[in-house]
Amino acid sequence: MFHPNRNLIPLLLLFTLPAAAQVDPLGRSVLFIRGSSGSGGLGQGTASQRTEHLSGIENRSTQPGNHGFGALADRLRQEGFQVSQWVESQGSLTAARLAPHRVVVFGSNNRTYSAAEIKVFHDWFDAGGSALFISDANWGPNFNAAPASDNLFLARYGMSVYQDSASGVPVMRRSDPGRFALPGHPLLSGPDGSGGQNDVQAYEGEGVSYFNAAGNAGYQPRVVVSATGFQVRQLDPLGIGPLTAAGPSDGALVVLTRGNSVIVGHFDRNSFFNPGGTGSDLTRRDNRQLALNIFRFLASVPGAINPVGSGCGAGPPVLGVDAVALGRDQTWSVTAAAPGAPGLLWLGAGPSSPLGIAPGCTFHPSLSPGFGLLLPAADAQGRTFLKLTLPGGLELSGQTVTGQALLARPGGPLLGAAELSNGVEVVLGFSR
Asked: Which of 87, 112, 303, 365 lies most in the core, judged by the most C-beta atoms within 10 Å?
């Protein structure tokens, strides 16, 4: 199998795609939702202290015991995200407020939303939005306020969050049998799913709020990290609910995907505090890597493969591709070529743009921007393969590339010397 320069391919892809391209149709904007000033801290302390408990993205304190998300927000900006915050006292949750954002973080929200506001969120999600839900007792005036606020939005999907278990600092380890229920998921292993620098080996929280992912007829969330062996606190609108053993549908990390839309439920805010944060923070274990994996996954779109048109020639040759997930190897294959025939794979940025170049022969990729890669000579069965390594960042997520192969064949329809395969449109994204 032929292996071109693995550093060259990402550069070619990056420089041939439009410079102004977005990570996905909604861009890379992240909106954090924060509770109204003074509404946190379980109603204890001064108004300023109760507000500090709400984990604002403007809070960059590294004092021991801080509750800030400023370091997380700054790290996301380094990744190319645009990060902003909306406070619940600033009006209603409207379609116009959500529309500019690809990702919404339901962080310290603790109020009761109206049916109209909940529908706004569901409509936004159905149109391709993604959301991260985190809960905590101190994100409200009582134990029930924050999870109850989240569950108004989550009920539709067969998901819910429990009350804060207030039970120490649980550590989720890859090495513990069965703990990572989906160990190769991009949330735990990055987009390549094969281990390495994106891997999360262990992460932690403090006084955590687990999620239930039972699902329903319309939606099937999945448990990525199991909560079995721990205790979950049942909801109690009058106070602190009882602790019970976690079941098979309970998780420390859960996910739901539908089309371009993603919901992630993570069991604790403390995992993402500024350095020195209460209980835990971004610098503990692999908390920072987990945060990056979560937001990269929320902003990604699923890859797709769409054959277009048909080839022309004796075969005609058939072009295929096995994967379009960013961060993974991708193999393009041609069958039904002339044995021993050399060829060229042309990759053009964007969807198919059919161009007739000979009777019965249509060329589908764009010529500019685009580039060609030499294919090795076909084997005795008329097969040839080309392996590429796709970059693992978000720069290309949601972008479309169209490929088509030109193969030598004496007497072929192209100048009597060549033939064409079908075209293949690929949408680059993360694996789901």
From this structure: 365
Residues 63, 130: one domain? yes
**CATH code at 421?**
2.60.40.2150
CA 76 to chain centre: 14
Judgement on whether residues 194 and 220 belong to the same structural domain of the protein? yes
Pick the closest to residue 289 from 425, 168, 186, 220 (CA basis): 186
- Give the tens place of pLDDT for each residue, 186-244: 899 986 665 667 899 999 999 999 999 999 989 999 999 999 999 999 999 988 999 99
- Per-residue model confidence as pLDDT tens digits over 154-202: 999 999 999 999 989 999 999 999 999 999 998 999 866 656 678 999 9
The Cα diameter of the chain in Å comes to 86
Distance CA 370, CA 23 (A): 19
Look up the domain containing 320 and give its range. Answer: 8-12+302-427
Is a pLDDT exceeding 70 seen at residue 1? no
pLDDT at 301 over 60: yes
3 occurs within a structural domain? no
Clarify whether residues 264 and 326 are in a common domain.
no
Q: Is the pTM of this model over 0.70?
A: yes
Query: What CATH number should be reported for the domain holding residue 290?
Result: 3.40.50
Neighbour tally for 197: CB within 10 Å: 8
Task: Please write the tens of the pLDDT for every residue from 84-143.
Answer: 999 999 999 999 999 999 999 999 999 999 999 999 999 999 999 999 999 999 999 999
Last residue of a domain, one of 253, 280, 299: 299
What residues contact 188, with CB distance under 8 A and at least 6 apart? 174, 180, 182, 199, 200, 224, 225, 253, 290, 293
CA-closest candidate to residue 9, choices 367, 373, 426, 304: 373
How far, in whole angstroms, is CA 316 from its chain's centroid? 38
Place of tokens 């990702």: 103
Q: Looking at residue 397, what is its pLDDT?
A: 81
Q: Using alpha carbons, select from 193, 257, 246, 195 the residue that is nearest to residue 222.
A: 257
Which of 277, 299, 321 finishes a domain?
299
Residue 250 lies in a domain: yes
Query: Is residue 17 one of the residues assigned to a domain?
Result: no
What mean pLDDT is reported for the chain? Answer: 91
